[in-house]
Design a protein that fits this description.
- This protein is α/β, with parallel strands linked by helices.
- The protein folds into three domains: about 140 residues, NAD(P)-binding Rossmann-like Domain (Rossmann fold), CATH 3.40.50; about 160 residues, no CATH class; about 70 residues, RNA polymerase sigma factor, region 2, helix turn helix motif (Rna Polymerase Sigma Factor, Chain: A, Orthogonal Bundle), CATH 1.10.1740.
- About 50% of the residues lie in helices and about 15% in strands.
- It has 17 helices and eleven strands.
- A seven-stranded parallel sheet has the order 4-3-2-1-5-6-7, sandwiched between helices.
- The longest helix has 26 residues.
- The structure holds magnesium ion.
């Protein structure tokens, strides 16, 4: 039996992971659940899964949660980053599903690796901000970091039974998001509601906006670089609107190995938990005859400037990807609040990157320092955009 802690249990990946775990019966056991602010849903999950411990971000919320739980419920409630770290390092935990969005999941994930826990990683920022530190620690602990992202799961699957030195390139597929067909002029007028309407995937708000700007694909390229020890030049991106081919690996002899499946996160979650096995799934089967056509095109880097910026940040390396990620989080938040335009997201990220002098990241503190520098700088620079808008 695999004993699991989930960071971000009330988010879209967390909820899906709980479904996969439940369907897995005796194979899995939930021992800890951590969430940001969703007290109601976490209380429900505790009732159902009876974990040893649970945590929320704020102390007040943790108190409210404890009062709400049944007196006989033995789940201990913690709060804050410290609470998250405590839960993921419990001796009863074998695997940590890291699915808290944004930078919040970084420190607990790092602590879990240091404690020798296997990681099923859905949080992109962990590797984008601190890839060098995280991978060095995972190597030291001889730990697997198993991706919960359809693309990286596809790459991992396409690498099985092959030789790493035979890889020519990795091809990441992207649906193209809701603005795939929009013109540059239309992009300026995009509202948060329009950008949140993703055609194929049901996800949290931050990642859905990142999918509309294609920043998500850029972050995934950086993530793939770390996970599979690739050069950023070995990663190429194709727009594939059907979201059936989740990514591919091209070998030196010209063979391309791909993984196909219906677009549902249950597959990468299940594979990460049962790796290297492919176990029975609750999903309907993929009927290729119903899909009919699979198409691929190159992304327009001018229109999707965020993707271009992310690849540039990866080329520069050191602290630049952390700065890209921090500035992007700020920009997405400002866009969702109606403070900047959709096209300003890339502008703000670019300005923040221009203002940054990159340095190597050797510790988790340095990585977090780059992230917070970037947030402060981006907020400062955002002033110009807000003025221009009003
Ligand atoms: Mg993905």
């Amino acid at each position: 039996m695999k004993r699991i802690a989930i960071l971000g249990s009330t988010g879209s990946i967390g909820c899906k992971a709980l479904q996969v775990i439940e369907a897995g019966g005796e194979r899995y056991k939930v021992v800890a659940l951590a969430a940001g602010r969703n007290i109601d849903l976490l209380a429900k999950q505790i009732d159902e899964f009876r974990p040893l411990g649970a945590a929320l971000l704020e102390q007040e919320d943790a108190k409210t949660l404890r009062n709400r739980l049944n007196e006989r419920c033995e789940t201990q409630v913690f709060y804050g980053t410290e609470g998250f770290c405590h839960l993921v390092t419990l001796p009863e935990v074998d695997t940590v599903i890291s699915a808290m969005s944004g930078a919040a999941g970084l420190v607990p994930t790092y602590q879990a690796i240091k404690a020798g826990k296997e990681i099923a990683l859905a949080n992109k920022e962990t590797l984008v901000i601190a890839g060098s530190v995280i991978m060095a620690e995972a190597k030291k602990q001889e730990l697997a970091i198993l991706p919960i992202d359809s693309e990286h799961s596809a790459i991992l699957q396409s690498l099985q039974g092959h030789h790493k030195e035979d890889v020519r390139q990795v091809i990441l597929t992207a649906s193209g998001g809701p603005l795939r067909e929009s013109s540059q002029g239309e992009m300026e007028k995009v509202t948060p509601e329009q950008a949140l309407r993703h055609p194929n995937w049901n996800m949290g708000t931050k990642i859905t906006i990142d999918s509309a700007t294609l920043m998500n694909k850029g972050l995934e390229a950086i993530e793939a670089k770390w996970l599979f020890d690739l050069n950023i030049d070995q990663i190429s991106i194709l727009i594939h609107p059907q979201s059936i081919v989740h990514s591919m690996v091209e070998y030196k002899d010209g063979s391309i190995i791909a993984q196909l499946g219906i677009p549902d996160m249950a597959t990468p979650i299940s594979y990460a938990l049962s790796y290297p096995r492919h176990l029975e799934s609750m999903l309907p089967r993929l009927r290729l005859e119903e899909i009919g056509t699979l198409s691929f095109t190159r992304p327009d880097m001018k229109k999707f400037k965020c993707l271009d910026l992310a690849l540039k940040a990866a080329q520069i390396g050191e602290s630049m990807p952390a700065v890209l990620s921090g500035a992007n989080e700020v920009a997405v938040e400002l866009f969702l609040k109606g403070k900047i335009l959709f096209t300003d997201i890339a502008e703000l990220v670019e300005k923040t990157m221009d203002a940054h002098r990159p340095y190597p990241l050797n510790t988790i503190e340095e990585a977090m320092g780059a992230d917070s520098w970037s947030r402060i700088k981006a907020r400062e620079l955002a002033g110009e955009f807000t003025v221009r808008r009003s």
